[in-house]
Amino acid sequence: MTQTSAETAVHNLLMHCAGAQAGQRVLIAYEPETFGYFDAEVVDSVAREATKLGLHVDRTNVGFEAQDPRFSPDLMEQMRAADVVVFLARLGDQLRFSEMPDTTTIVNSYTLTSELLNSGFATAHYQAFCELKAAVDRVVAQADEIELTCPAGTSVRGRPDLGNIPSSDTTLRRFPVSVFSPVPAEGFSGKVALGGFLTGTGSRYYDDYTVEFDSQVFALLNHGRLDGFEGASADVAKAEAQYDRVSAMFGIDRNFVHSWHAGIHPGCGFPWDMRRDYDRWGGAAFGNPRILHFHTCGAYAPGEISWNLFDATIEVDGVALWEQGVFRADRLPEGREILARYPCAAQVFAAPDRNIGLSGTS
Fold it and tell me: Contact at 8 Å (CB) between 176 and 286?
């Protein structure tokens, strides 16, 4: 019998990503739909399909804490008692760099809606994108020069220094895998064409989380430091004020630019207008290859303010692995072989979802 998309997606999440086995206990740590971020139907679908797979399912409401997220003692006890924990909540993303129970497999899922859960974003084989991520990481690690450009005028060059980067960039598993490892910004300089706004990173949430610009603004990058902005005076003043405010609010290094990376999952679509909810957009759309983002404001990942640019070309030693927002996985040394092993992933590359929340573009 043919599987439904939800069955395929949850099998992919629990079996391929989490490595779950029938008889194990799964804890779904969820954020109620009333917060306007995760749909309740996603939580129900994961629980229902997990039960069909022979897993024992518990749910726990972890709510949402904007500025001071933490694992409560009760939640930590529940996590330790489970074999697998699936976060369908921002808490998992907020604390993805924190210490986790090392006897439990913990997954943070970015399937915020039923549309995402039932799309190629969640149904394409998890391992395919693990292998693509690893392939990109190897190419980046060996690069002598990387150049970033985009149609709006981005022009950044540099050489990555991965000497102090840990082998894993988070302490949990992400589902789906949708970005390669962050590239330290210290070796990069140039100007970044901001995509019309500054927004947070999903680390902490605060009032006036996003500021929008009336015209094109460029962020000036100098060896991993913010060196100012170019653009209309009112927009530049707005950007400078946002950095002043957020850095003072959290007592962090205002001008530190930590790292950057781009989306690797062509199935990651966002068919809604980003301007209706930048918080949700930032937590769901970043895996699309049309989006490249920098982590800034704070000397840690992911910082508190992100720079987002669209339709980037990323040339690694002269080879365009991203070409105006199209991830050319076939240009990786082992890219063709990976896609040949996973036809479901190849299908997503053949028919990418170009929706990223920009009205009137595709």
Answer: no
